[in-house]
Amino acid sequence: MAHWDERYRSGEHGKAEPHPLLLQFASNLLPGRALDVASGPGRHAIWLAERGWHVTAVDYSPAAIELLHERSVRKGVQIDACVADLESDAFVIGKASYDLIVVCGYLQRNLFTPIKDGTRIGGIVLAAIAMVDDDPKIKPMNPAYLLQPGELRANFEGWELLHDFEGKPADDPKRRATAEIVARRLL
Questions:
Q1: d(CA 125, CA 67)
Q2: How far is CA 56 from each of CA 59, 150, 159, rounded to the nearest angstrom?
Q3: Which tens digits make up the pLDDT trace of 55-104?
């Protein structure tokens, strides 16, 4: 955890702009309850809170949550933020608790079921997660933290897919391939 805390404190993961997928899809949603999984310093949580969402943000890094708190105070928004190790079930996603769940840049396969269960009927899961990428110019990563082709889509079988993309970002083909999904819970 010290490694992640240092990365957040140094500003390495200090992007202020939300993921374009969130801007595109959440802009058209009525505010409700949102969960930002592995929120980091809160770029998604703050953007949602500024638009009237009641946001819960969770991350394992105390430094990230501290930055999120500082940023939310400066922006004048309230976010329920907590430090929790998602891998040890320290944070429980309540069943049918959220209208929107956001997961960007974080893969923990055993969270797919709680995320789906935690989404209200008619609610949305928005995810953008790194994939296996055979591009030799891309920095190697532990494959345990990378999605396989079709894996994200398969986890949302039976949901209405509003957006489904796998590949390199069009605006930056030098970046790692990602899987993106915006899925609405039907039942």
A1: 25
A2: 10, 29, 23
A3: 999 999 999 999 999 999 999 999 999 999 999 988 999 999 999 999 99
Beta strand segments in 9-130, E: 33-37, 54-59, 79-83, 98-104, 119-130
Q: Which residue has the tokens 């404190």?
A: 9
Residues 6+ apart with CB under 8 A from 58: 35, 36, 37, 38, 39, 81, 82, 83, 84, 86, 91
Q: Give domain 2-184's CATH number out of 3.40.50.150, 3.40.50.720, 1.10.1040.10, 3.90.640.10.
A: 3.40.50.150
Domain segments of the chain: what residues?
2-184
Residues of the chain with pLDDT under 50: none
Both tokens assigned to 40: 């980091």
